[in-house]
Inverse folding.
């Protein structure tokens, strides 16, 4: 087998190889003979189908397989012989100017770069320090209180932070639309889980009151059938509740795992948890800065094949995530359909 290695750029290589045609023909004939012993064809007994008929029926497929195997074997041999670290998959193309009685092809591919760590002796990295004060403990306790918020029913008008339970129906041009109706739906005013116009329309409502208000759907709203349109909602308020935060007392301490309900002990445990979290974040920050300093001092040319493979992986992950959420990707042309299927070595050979 004749081979020739060519350097196209710092990372790109091209290998030209030639395989004798008689080797290909010999392997094709041997595979067809083996196939003749098992193939079933109407009008013939098993194993009695003429080789000529088998060749006509299965010859092109067998030839394609043999050529693909020969290409792969030859390419692997060259890569091992030259000790090349191939990045991605090669682009294999037949050569039309091959010598008589030879099958010639070229494989263009990229190799991994040689990475030599740069000098980081001049880099300066500042390690942040943070003392956990009583103010941070108080802030953490406040967050924990909000996480344990309960609600109690009130008879006053709803205000920001309240939870309002409603039955509603939405209409566009007087016609109800899909997804525009709900019963017993809880809406936290100011929570941002509903459209701003919807929350604003419920502000000031009291239990037993029915309010009518308009809601403008954003132009980029997920529901394409209502995006950019204005709907009129009729909402019957069945309940208004105000948030109640737990007191910082022995019961609260016990809910955090302090068995005896000691407030001072609870604060110390919270301080220890916060300090561990701060230490972890500082370590991650320093690690990130060290890695960035090393990257800045070590310029590396990344193979385009690896960038493309990673791009396809991210696109496939995004598509799978969106499809799992029930979004039909046929309506999202901005995310292309990518295939991770490895190209066949003989895909361009007849």
């Amino acid at each position: 087998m004749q081979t020739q290695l060519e350097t196209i750029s710092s990372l790109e290589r091209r290998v030209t190889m030639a395989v004798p045609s008689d080797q290909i023909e010999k392997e094709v004939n041997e595979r067809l003979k083996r196939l003749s012993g098992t193939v079933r064809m109407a009008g013939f007994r098993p194993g009695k189908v003429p080789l000529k008929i088998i060749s006509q029926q299965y010859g092109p497929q067998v030839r394609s397989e043999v050529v693909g195997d020969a290409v792969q074997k030859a390419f692997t041999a060259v890569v091992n012989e030259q000790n090349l670290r191939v990045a991605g998959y090669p682009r294999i193309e037949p050569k039309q100017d091959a010598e008589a009685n030879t099958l010639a092809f070229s494989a263009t591919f990229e190799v991994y770069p040689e990475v030599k760590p740069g000098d980081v002796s001049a880099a300066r990295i500042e390690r942040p320090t943070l003392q956990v004060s009583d103010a941070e403990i108080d802030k953490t306790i406040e967050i924990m209180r909000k996480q344990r918020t309960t609600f109690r029913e009130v008879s006053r008008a709803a205000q920001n932070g309240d939870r309002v339970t409603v039955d509603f129906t939405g209409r566009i041009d007087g016609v109800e639309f899909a997804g525009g109706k709900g019963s017993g739906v809880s809406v936290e005013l100011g929570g941002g889980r509903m459209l701003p116009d919807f929350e604003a329309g419920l502000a000031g409502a009291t239990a037993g009151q029915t309010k009518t208000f308009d809601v403008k759907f954003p132009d980029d709203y997920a529901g394409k059938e209502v995006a950019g349109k204005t709907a009129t909602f009729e909402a019957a308020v069945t309940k208004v509740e105000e948030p109640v935060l737990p007191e910082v007392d022995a019961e609260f301490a016990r809910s955090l795992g302090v068995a005896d309900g000691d407030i001072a002990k609870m604060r110390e445990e919270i301080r220890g948890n916060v300090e561990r979290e701060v230490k972890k974040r500082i370590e991650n920050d320093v690690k990130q800065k060290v890695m960035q300093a090393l990257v800045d001092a070590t310029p590396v040319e990344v193979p385009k094949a690896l960038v493309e493979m990673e791009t396809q992986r991210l696109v496939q992950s995004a598509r799978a995530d969106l499809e799992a959420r029930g979004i039909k990707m046929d309506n999202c042309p901005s995310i292309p359909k990518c295939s991770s299927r490895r190209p066949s070595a003989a895909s361009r050979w007849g």
Q: What stands out?
A: The beta strands are 2-7, 12-20, 86-94, 102-111, 150-153, 163-172, 175-188, 210-216, 230-244. Residues 21 and 101 are 5 Å apart (CA to CA). The chain is about 35% helix and 25% strand.
